[in-house]
Design goal:
The chain is built from three helices and 39 strands.
Length: 587
């Protein structure tokens, strides 16, 4: 979240001189983003709405609150919260966990308090019920919370939950649908003198099969280190993170599900906001990407046994095309260009472009925001939660971005911003390494026609119909539940992976071949912004066509399944080493 006056002045100038075409009805003070110009052969038409806002009738009533009514202008207020989607009760439906934020208490309003977090059980038919107390989670707010990350860290078959925040974090072990706070004996020690954890990602980093944990931390702000800062209009506002010292990030190695040990292993300090764990160089080991705020982003290549080499600048993913760092927040990765390799997408601050880094292989990436059409939306957005999602189920990953300013009084005059929906213009037969995106937000639905203070976003199939839905957390505005109602022409197959004990599947690569079309997807840890998404994968299928799915497990084992075994228009579970898929959900 780059907040320097120079950057704000640049943003203000760009905002005033840039002409944008109107694509939808706009709210007062709301200027819609532009779209990438089409080329011959591009199909940019989308029949909307793609998403329906079904929050009102769902029972999902919740708001993340940041305590800004104390009027401290504290940088703590700017981060917001995330979302975790996971099936806590093994009924085959994704449930929703939401961190609640916090506030400032006491006579001087400088005592940190937490707003309650909430777990909502998915009842089916787009109905949700608050089961926080029933499941043993605290009904009050233990601390000022931010993010959530879900994983079965103890390999008992039940997904556990980590919650991050200011002052501490919490680890809740899932005991068959009832949560137990095991933080005190977990070994999750603070990596430095103070604690401000933001995003977290799970994944096996030392090849022992157990999910390890990378927790990124932010800066050393406190009320003892709380300078007064002015915004562009000379009035008090949120300070830039560059005025504070970055905190060390924390790598915790899983000790066979019993506890964790804190490791350094080349992990550097940085004002971290986003983290992603995935095999980014194709060597079968999970690497780490960290999105930092106003300093270089980090790419940690796993050289084996959780020994990392940071190569972000050399690899071309530390900043923009000139290597300049940005105010980075959200991150995701996908094979968006048909190369079979994972490219990276990072959301940035106003005055900067959101960054698309296309993976060229051999740990080299090319900054491609402009050539791919991402930069066509301009530089006025402050991006947070993001994800590659194939919303139209055509086999090409599309892109969602939740936006919202962090300043109380931004130069644009508007804190709320519109979300962006990009559609991939890749077609079967396009050369590998080529991708272009079109802004189709106008067809996104009512949610995209109004502005929001967007923060975390999680992606998953909440009704098991093969279409990816979205849950978005906002600051001081109710969470929104976006149901994917797009009518695709394709069929589909959904995959849930279960590794051998230990079971962690992060890093698995799935390749579906169907005629001359290939789709490559991977299981990732972390991603988006302070959020945790559906671990299952959905592949598009041509109606009636034969296909074959190959799974390369993190262990190195490779298995293949044909369409006769997997079927279509359903979810199946694949257990590592078994010759036939299992029904989903598994019990």
């Amino acid at each position: 979240m780059s907040l320097s006056r120079t950057r704000l002045a640049l943003f203000s100038t760009l905002f005033l001189i840039t002409t944008v075409s109107c694509q939808r009805a706009t709210a007062p003070g709301h200027t819609p983003a532009t779209s990438v110009p089409s080329e011959p052969g591009d199909d940019v038409s989308v029949r909307g709405p793609v998403f329906a806002d079904v929050t009102a009738a769902s029972g999902l009533a919740f708001t993340y609150r940041n305590g800004e009514d104390a009027d401290h202008q504290a940088i703590l207020e700017s981060l917001g919260g995330g979302v975790a989607l996971f099936d806590y009760d093994h009924d085959g439906l994704l449930d929703i966990f939401l961190p609640g934020g916090g506030y400032f208490d006491g006579p001087d309003k400088k005592k940190f308090r937490g707003h309650p977090n909430r777990l909502f059980r998915n009842l089916g038919e787009w109905k949700f019920r608050d089961v926080t107390a029933d499941c043993g989670l605290p009904i009050d707010g233990p601390f000022y919370s931010h993010g959530a990350a879900a994983s079965d860290y103890d390999n008992d078959g039940w997904t556990d939950l980590l919650v991050t925040g200011y002052g501490r974090l919490a680890l809740y072990r899932n005991d068959k649908g009832h949560f137990v706070d095991v933080t005190a004996n977990s070994g999750l020690k603070d990596p430095g003198a103070m604690h401000w954890s933001t995003s977290a990602g799970w994944g096996d980093l030392n090849a022992d099969g157990w999910p390890d944990l990378l927790v990124v931390h932010y800066v050393n702000w406190s009320f003892q280190n709380h300078p007064a800062c002015d915004g562009a209009n000379k009035k008090p506002d949120i300070c830039s993170p560059s005025l504070f010292e970055p905190l060390p990030h924390a790598l915790y190695l899983n000790q066979t599900g019993k506890n964790f040990t804190l490791q350094s292993n080349g992990i550097k300090a940085g004002p971290g906001l986003g983290v992603l764990l995935a095999d980014l160089d194709g060597d079968g080991r999970n690497d780490i990407y960290v999105a930092n705020d106003r300093t270089d982003n980090y790419l940690y290549i796993n050289r084996g046994m959780a020994a990392f080499e940071e190569i972000g600048l050399r690899a071309g993913v530390s900043g923009d095309e000139a290597g300049r760092p940005g105010g980075s927040m959200g991150v995701d990765a996908a094979d968006c260009d048909g190369s079979g390799r994972l490219s990276l997408f990072v959301t940035n601050f106003a005055g900067e472009e959101h960054a698309l880094y296309l993976n060229q292989g051999a740990s080299r990436f090319t900054y491609s925001s402009r050539v791919a059409g991402i930069a066509a939306i301009g530089r006025r957005f402050v991006g947070f939660g993001t994800g590659f999602i194939d919303f139209d189920r055509d086999g090409a990953p599309d892109l969602f971005i939740a936006n919202g300013h962090v300043l109380r009084r931004p130069a644009s005059g508007a804190r709320n911003q519109d979300a962006i929906l990009f559609r991939s213009l890749r077609n079967t037969g396009d050369p590998a390494g080529r991708v272009r995106f079109a802004n189709v937000s106008a067809a996104g639905g009512d949610y995209f026609k109004t502005t929001h203070m967007g923060r975390g976003a999680a992606f998953g199939d909440l009704d098991n119909d093969g279409r990816i839905d979205i849950v978005v957390s906002h600051t001081n505005e109710p969470v929104v539940l976006l149901r994917n109602v797009f009518e695709p022409k394709s069929e589909w197959i959904g995959i849930s992976l279960i590794g051998k004990a230990p079971k962690d599947p992060v890093g698995a690569v799935l390749t579906l071949n169907e005629g001359d079309r290939r789709q490559v997807q991977t299981i990732k840890g972390g991603g988006s912004y302070m959020s945790s998404s559906d671990p299952r994968l959905v592949f598009a299928l041509a109606a009636g066509a034969n296909y074959r799915l190959t799974v390369r497990w993190p262990s190195g084992q490779v298995q293949s399944f044909d369409d006769a075994a997997l079927g279509r228009n359903r979810y199946v579970a694949i257990q590592e080493g078994e010759n036939a898929p299992r029904p989903f959900p598994t019990r």
